Write a sequence for this structure.
């Protein structure tokens, strides 16, 4: 083998080994992020919630809430720097690249005039959802704390079990085509209506980096309230 071929082979071997090392590092960091999140206490304590309980409000429709993860994580990094809390590592760690993620699915009272008028904590404080269930839904809603909190605050007002609630969120999420880049509010609405036939006539909502899509009790898309008190 001549010197040129030997050099090419050496370069290939070095590059291949570097590729394997980088892959090992990346996936080990991802696994570490998952382990950090699901191996801790992710319970949500109702008494610490600033809004509190409303177990008697009716459910007239639902609001499905999506969050633009890059903007959320940028805000968290500006707050914490490189010292992110464990609860944020899976979503906002350097190895993660989430776009639109599920914030929650909220039963809503059409007569609400403030957030506390909506159904909340209808079954009080609930135990932690088993870790093996939480793990299944992290790809669409990348926080064990968020999944637990949304189940206790909202899901338990309309669903008998956490898994059924999370499955409905995933089902709605997968009916949507979502952009993989940040858009202004108006451009986002235009993109969504163009690429999702079932959203064409609907009035959508938005607040900061969140998107609101509303459904009736039969899961048909409806106009969201034009006032934020409807959310």
């Amino acid at each position: 083998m001549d010197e040129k071929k030997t050099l090419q082979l050496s370069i290939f071997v070095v590059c291949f080994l570097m590729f394997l090392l980088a892959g090992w590092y990346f996936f080990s960091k991802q696994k570490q992020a998952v382990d950090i999140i699901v191996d801790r206490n992710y319970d949500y304590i109702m008494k610490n919630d600033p809004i509190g309980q409303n177990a008697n409000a009716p459910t007239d429709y639902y609001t499905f809430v999506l969050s633009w993860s890059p903007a959320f994580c940028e805000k968290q990094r500006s707050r914490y720097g490189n010292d992110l809390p464990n609860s944020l590592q899976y979503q906002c760690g350097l190895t993660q690249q989430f776009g639109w993620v599920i914030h929650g699915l909220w039963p809503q009272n059409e007569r609400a005039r403030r957030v506390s008028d909506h159904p909340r904590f209808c079954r009080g404080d609930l135990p932690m959802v088993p870790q093996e269930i939480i793990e299944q839904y992290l790809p669409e809603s990348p926080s064990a704390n968020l999944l637990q909190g949304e189940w206790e605050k909202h899901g338990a007002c309309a669903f008998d079990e956490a898994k059924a609630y999370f499955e409905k969120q995933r089902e709605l999420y997968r009916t949507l085509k979502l952009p993989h880049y940040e858009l202004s509010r108006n451009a986002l609405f235009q993109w969504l209506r163009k690429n999702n036939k079932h959203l064409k006539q609907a009035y959508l909502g938005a607040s900061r980096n969140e998107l609101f899509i509303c459904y009736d009790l039969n899961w048909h898309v409806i106009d969201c309230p034009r006032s934020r008190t409807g959310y």
